[in-house]
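ESCALATION

Customer reports they have been waiting on this structure for their group meeting. Please prioritize. Original submission:
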Amino acid sequence: MLQMRPGCECCDRDLPADARGAFVCSFECTFCADCAATVLKGACPNCGGGLTARPLRTGVMLAKYPAATSRTVKVAGCPAV
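Update from on-call: job pushed to the front of the queue and completed.
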C-alpha cells in the first residue's frame, strides 16, 4: 500500500492524499507537479526512475488508511536534471 507521503521532497509543498498534483517513482519518492516537470523533467533524482501521477486516496479509504505524516525533504532542494 502506498504511504501517501505528505509533501514534495524538493520544495516541501503540501501534497494531500485526496488531491491531484503528486508524482511518485517506484520507491514512492514524492514530488509536486511543478518540481516533477520543471526541475526533475520526469525522472526521480534518488533512483533515476520515471515519475508517474500518484493515485488519490479519498473518503472512507483515506479514513481507514491515513496518509503518512513524516516528511522527507532535501535540505538543498533537488538538483536540476
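Sent to customer with the following note: The longest strand covers residues 22-24.
Escalation resolved.
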